[in-house]
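for the writeup, i need someone to sanity check this before i put it in the appendix. the sequnce is what the collaborator sent (i think, or maybe the updated version? ugh). structure was predicted straight from it, no edits. if anything looks off just tell me and ill rerun, i have time this weekend
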Amino acid sequence: MRVTATLLLLGMCCLGAQASSITYITPAGSTTSGGAVDASATFTTGTGTIMVTLSNLEANPHDEAQALSDLFFTVGNGSTVTGASFGSGSAAAISIDGTGHITMTTPLTTAGQVGWVLSDPNSTEVLLNVLSGMGHAGPAHTMIGPPDSSGVYSDANHSIAGNGPHNPFISETATWVIDAPNVSSDTTITSAIFSFGTTVGQNVAGAVIPEPSSMLLLGSGLLVFTQVLRRKLL
């Protein structure tokens, strides 16, 4: 009975522990009309803030439809995002010429320079995007993955290489801090959807992955339980 009670207590502790950070990824094998896509979004919630780190991980892309253009996410745990706004943002912009070579890299140190916007955050939903809303930079500033091992986008077609409207691109990753007065460290992100390219409908639902801190907590709990069980059996 005591061993069973210990197991239940440890299970409740592991399930009840809430991390302030969560990461969503595109599931393995995800594609759009342009080819394979691979992206991640890490959300860190704190008192009155949501920090979002968005990354395009698909190396040496072929088509603009593999570039990230928006991120839709929802908050839970009783929190709302009505009235949320950008606090800060950072990224780097790159221009890619007709041969796939990077000709310019420009640090972007404010949300305005990054050129993505929050489209009317309402209730529990947020759309972070570059194609709609006041002040957006689209169709430029979609987020492209890394080049090949030689630092060249050698597989890029005309929608990327030397494409005037789509250049410059956000290079690989960007981070924003969103001011959201009703958010706390207990706020959870309950879903995330990645969108790609400049054509409507190229969406991929994100899958959540465990945070290292949560896995460490679970591992610690199982270790303690194993030690308790061994003592009871000896």
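The first helix runs from residue 2 to 16. Residues 109 and 200 are 29 Å apart (CA to CA).
thx in advance!!
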